[in-house]
Amino acid sequence: MLCYQPMKKKISVHDLELGMYVSELDRPWLETPFLFQGFEIRSVEEIAELRRYCRFVYILVAEQTTGRHDRSLFRVSDGVSAAVYGEQQKKIEFEILRKAAAPAPADLYYEDLATLEEEVQTVHAVYSEAKTLIASMMEDVRLGRAIRTGKAAKVVAGLASSVIRNPDALVCFSQLRNKDQYTALHSLRVAILALVFGRHLGLDVDTLNVLGIGALLHDIGKLKLPNEILEKSEPLSEQEYQIVQTHVPLGVSILEGTAIPRAAIEVARCHHERHDGTGYVSGMRRDEIGLFGQIGAIVDYYDAITSDRAYHVGMSAHVALRQMYAGRGQAFHPERVEQFIQCMGIYPIGSIVELNTGEVGVVVAMNRQRRLKPRVTLVLRSNATPYETPRIVDLMEQTSSEGQPLEIERVVEPGLYRINPVQYLPVAANF
């Protein structure tokens, strides 16, 4: 049996071929478009880009340990253990970084009209009104009363207007979670995420309003299910899971009896359909799922896996996006997943990050032009002691005490430093 040992080999960029695994460059990575160390060359465009920025690179070669040394090119397709060329997660992380860091289109449809701090104050009342509305609509459905769709449309219009002015404010509000109010707050967060994503896609105001009301009411059918199933703290049985799936047709039936646009109902109808046909209830595939259904499926899943619920602890947004990217083309439309990652940023609001200075902070605002340069509230010094007064730094403008640009080194889980990120968001003082 052949065994392989990884070895680095210096090679001219003019000798690069598809499938080679580049482990190092002849210059700092951040001076190039290749934003994470280690990647497999998959296109001639990547070779051209390497030739543009580098004179030579280091690739990994596989050295056979059978008595002779045949230093063949190290390729991912060799089937060598992932440990030889780095963890698969690292490779995924690199790809996400590249796509998320792509420059914003020159003809960006929307520009921010307010600062984060201004918009937090403006939308506070609208967010509170939306929470009250959701609670009253849930009661209406449980008691068999008609849904007040006019009131819902008014609230969604307020949310959409805020997202157009500056989406970061409502994204901050969406970090305020309570697992005991999961069903209600999940619906509101999904509406916010759908509006933010729709803005990123350049949807016009009228379309955003239709998308938003569909997202706000996408799970309305769950209110017809037994509470003991919805609140169960253990895995569902097969029979219980089948009951849960009925919330889709139940919700569609409820919404079809209202005055909301039919396009909005597609969010409820399709938010559990999957790109490869493995979803429910109709087993739709690929383009059979329309834009609203694709958006609904992505934002519903994203919020579900990042939220604490009765039976599981939510994962960080960064890990969730990595997982969704790894499954693109299976569960979700591949291009739509990449667009969602660009929308949320590789370092989503609320992420805890370590900087190249050793300091630790919380991402509080996006930079839609340079997604790797968000605004961060610094919480811990490089020696892990807390700042007496946390301060916000703009990574686009701030430099270290040595005059070096501030960069994010990595995202960490909240438990590592026992930081509650919500405490450092600009919405914390409002609740």
Please provide a written account of the structure.
- The structure is a single chain.
- The protein is an alpha+beta fold and 431 residues long.
- The protein folds into 3 domains: 4-86, no CATH class; 116-344, Orthogonal Bundle (Hypothetical protein af1432); 352-430, no CATH class.
- Helices cover 42% and strands 13% of the residues.
- It has 16 helices and 10 strands.
- The chain has helices at residues 44-53, 82-85, 88-100, 116-142, 149-165, 168-173, 182-200, 205-216, 227-230, 238-245, 247-256, 262-270, 291-305, 317-326, 334-344, 414-417; strands at residues 4-12, 21-25, 39-40, 56-64, 71-73, 352-355, 360-365, 375-380, 386-394, 408-412.
- Strands 1, 2, 3, 4 and 5 form a 5-stranded antiparallel sheet that branches. It has a 5-stranded antiparallel sheet with strand order 9-8-7-6-10.
- Helix 4 (116-142) packs across helix 7 (182-200) and helix 12 (262-270) crosses helix 13.
- It starts with a strand and ends in a 14-residue tail after the last helix.
